[in-house]
Design a protein that fits this description.
Elements: H1 11-34, H2 47-52, H3 57-60, H4 75-82, H5 90-100, H6 121-126, H7 131-135, H8 152-161, H9 165-171, H10 174-177
This protein binds heme C (5 copies).
Length: about 180
């Protein structure tokens, strides 16, 4: 008589399940890697609307002109405007509830380089490179959308185009972009 083992515990079936899971997880990874679908954010923040009423990029991302990181706005910055607004829909209520509980909003990053890459906004803004060049047309997006993979070739290519051969020695030095 066959041992009474449930089907999902039989060796060969276990292996198939693992394979299918690997393919599914791998596929999801590839999907995030190659498509520009933004991750789900705690609030569906509309860039297009806020830029449309005149809020400039650096009003919310204040660090870009002065240092490595552009930074995200604090809940207080949202509240500066939103406390005067009627929370007449779910999204506006969400903003109010984070502010009233004095909580920071757990935004999910979309523009991230690996830890071993050293990026600095300041020299780029000083050199007149626009936000859109690197982040896409954020002014027409709701939440920020991930851009196609920003790899080393992308950085080097622009560094070469935007510099003299002498400056390119520094701008292509490994230590300029790596810790
Ligand atoms: C030369 C390309 C480039 C330009 C120009 C640029 N960025 Fe970035 N930005 C990046 C890269 C690369 C990262 C990821 C940095 C990292 O992970 O260390 C990033 C990250 C960010 C982030 C998230 C992390 C952080 O720094 O707080 C924000 C927000 C941001 N950029 C906003 C802006 C805004 C606003 C402008 C225009 C004022 C701008 N960026 C201009 C390349 C650029
Ligand atoms: C310069 C002022 C200002 C700032 C700063 C601001 N908002 Fe707004 N926001 C508005 C106005 C005005 C509206 C329109 C409200 C309405 O339709 O009644 C709005 C609308 C919204 C909406 C509603 C969109 C919808 O579904 O109707 C969301 C969500 C939102 N803001 C989130 C935020 C968050 C999060 C922050 C901070 C990161 C923020 N806002 C910062 C002015 C601002
Ligand atoms: C009213 C505030 C506000 C303004 C104005 C604003 N942003 Fe943002 N930005 C946010 C918030 C909140 C987030 C986090 C949610 C998201 O990812 O969309 C964000 C996210 C981003 C990110 C992704 C950051 C990350 O962590 O990966 C980029 C890039 C960005 N903004 C660029 C811009 C650019 C370019 C402009 C001008 C065209 C702009 N933003 C204007 C509030 C603002
Ligand atoms: C669209 C063009 C462009 C892209 C893309 C770009 N850069 Fe730059 N980068 C510049 C310019 C222009 C400068 C300023 C050059 C100067 O000051 O002589 C600069 C300067 C820098 C500096 C400062 C170097 C120094 O010693 O002063 C660093 C670090 C840097 N870039 C890293 C990066 C990294 C990392 C990436 C990719 C993730 C990147 N850049 C992508 C144009 C670009
Ligand atoms: C202008 C900026 C810049 C310079 C200069 C630079 N790198 Fe990179 N490098 C990057 C970025 C950005 C990544 C991350 C790429 C990614 O995630 O695909 C990277 C990734 C890498 C990786 C990881 C492999 C990979 O493709 O993900 C290695 C190894 C590396 N760099 C070595 C070097 C060496 C060696 C030099 C000097 C000859 C150098 N880099 C110069 C920006 C730079």
């Amino acid at each position: 008589m066959k041992p009474n083992v449930p089907w999902w515990q039989r060796g060969s079936i276990r292996i198939s399940i693992v394979l299918v899971l690997l393919i599914l997880v791998g596929g999801a990874g590839v999907g995030i890697y190659y498509t520009q679908a933004p991750p789900e954010q705690p609030i569906p923040f509309p860039h297009n609307f806020h830029v449309g009423i005149g809020a400039e990029c650096m009003y919310c991302h204040t660090g870009a002109a002065t240092g490595p990181s552009a930074g995200l706005p604090t809940t207080n910055k949202c509240w500066g405007c939103h406390q005067q607004l009627e929370p007449r829909n779910e999204n506006l209520k969400l903003v109010a509830s984070f502010a009233e509980n004095e909580e920071s909003i757990p935004w999910v990053p979309v523009a991230l380089q690996p830890d071993f890459v050293k990026f600095n906004h300041q020299p780029h803004i000083t050199a007149g490179v626009s936000c859109e060049t690197c982040h896409g047309d954020v002014a027409s997006m709701t939440v920020a959308e991930p851009q196609p993979r920003h790899n080393m070739g992308w950085c080097l290519d622009c560094h070469q185009k935007m510099s003299t051969p002498e400056d390119f020695v520094r701008l292509s030095d490994c230590a300029t972009c790596h810790y």
